[in-house]
Amino acid sequence: MELIQQLLDFILHIDQHLIEIVREYQTWTYLILFLIIFAETGFVVTPFLPGDSLLFAAGAIIAKPESGLNIFIMCLLLIVAAILGDLVNYHIGNYIGPKAFSGKYKWLKTEYLEKTQKFYIKHGGKTIIYARFIPIVRTFAPFVAGIGTMSYSRFASYNVVGGVIWVVSFLFIGYFFGGLPVIKDNFTYVIFGIIILSILPPIVEIFRERRRKSAGI
What we know:
The chain is an all-alpha fold. It contains eleven helices and no strands.
């Protein structure tokens, strides 16, 4: 419980924690953020790590001259982290295969595989790009793709495009707008808003699925 509270505090007050990280570790901040983004996208057991909010907050912090960090270096490193993370996740899924859903791992259910595969059928390779902007799904999608939903060559192209769009959009939105008084004075609410908007699509989909089931469709 204490760990969950600490994690929530880190996410909701991520700007303050990043300021402390930059102040204490300076250029090592590049590596720290690289590892967080890599882990958040690369391992299905760490979907709770911040992604969208971290990128936005990092951009806002880097915009401050006293940070001493370069937005372009950070952008390049985090793009590499995002791409490598999904790549590792894909290969883990490819190695483990469908046996991962045999019941041995309680957090991996067959229904997750089926729903994700249906999503792939509906949206095709663009699923990898869409998933970048949805927490949990962002971590789970490349893993399922590796199980057999998508060939490696096709996955790799969408992985690069999705990683670039995701990192550049959130990082630079934070860089250019994170310092505005209305955002700076209400940063916690902005981060909370980003989280809500990010998880809204899957919530809507859940309600639609329940409505279809109740209607017998």
